[in-house]
Amino acid sequence: MTESRRKSRGFSLVEIAIVLAILGFVLTIGLKSTGAYLSAERRQTTVARLAGIDAALVNYVAVQRRLPCPADGTLATGLEARTAATGVCTAMATGVVPWVTLGLSEGEALDAWNNRITYRTVSAVVAVIPGGTNNGFTSDQALDMTNCDTAGAVGTTTELRALGPSLQPVNTCVANGAPPGCSSVNLTLCTPPLNFVINRGLAVRDGLVPPAVPNGAEVMSPANGTGAAYVLISHGENRGGAYSRAGAIQTGSPVNSALEEINNNNQAIQAFYMDAPQVDPDGVNHFDDIVVRPTLTSVITRAQLGPRVH
Prior knowledge:
The protein is α+β, with helices and mostly antiparallel strands and about 300 residues long. It has helices at about 5, 15-65, 100, 195, 260, 295-300; strands at about 70, 80-85, 90, 95, 115, 120, 155-165, 165-175, 205, 230-235, 245, 275, 290. It has a 3-stranded antiparallel beta sheet with strand order 6-10-13, covered by helices on one side. It has a two-stranded antiparallel ribbon with strand order 1-4. Strand 2 (about 80-85) and strand 3 (about 90) form a beta hairpin.
């Protein structure tokens, strides 16, 4: 065989196979890297949208002195579902961000996976924590602390405040020795400020510890009382427990862990919600929910409705 014929022979099957294997390996690594990049980018986009919703909620509180009720996630109205006379939310179990009520576009109330963001707060006169006094945040004037007296003291007598079907005793407030200044129907008259926030709000658990009883009794965290004013939840890349833009509840892929099940939409308000670090591998500790849960005090402060110094 001449030199020119050997040069024009081309690649052998073995050589082609090796090249294809290398190309496949490179493409696999590239696709994984691209997938990880897209996932991280979507999380960043979702975090930014959650921050925008959080700001819109605070602005709403500043004007209305209460939180809005959630919109119904099965519908495309974007309006809070609320009974005006009582302030009770009528679609909490299917609640999503009420984008129209907040002055947002529909897209601004979706996460980067095109699902509606779950929204939970405390409706009027609902006792989330057994035995607590979790008067709701959606009734008129519910988040106005401007009448609280920073120099006030808690009196020694008690009064009864209606709490759903039962009556719960609460401390009567006395402002600097004056007659009781606490009303059974208006928490804004409570003084000192601690009386306004204690045992109110939603409880949120940190960490990757599956609870034995998801709906069991839960102690408010922190123990001195101020829980979350509301919880915003993107159900993440696996989408489990979210309402789609079309109003359908999503099944997780991979399936939700027990931790994520607690945050699911389309269920009654929970005794507590979960917030934990991101864990991507499938399994009992999988967690890709993105949670925003500002304290009651922080929302009131940012809305400039904090107590005045008398």
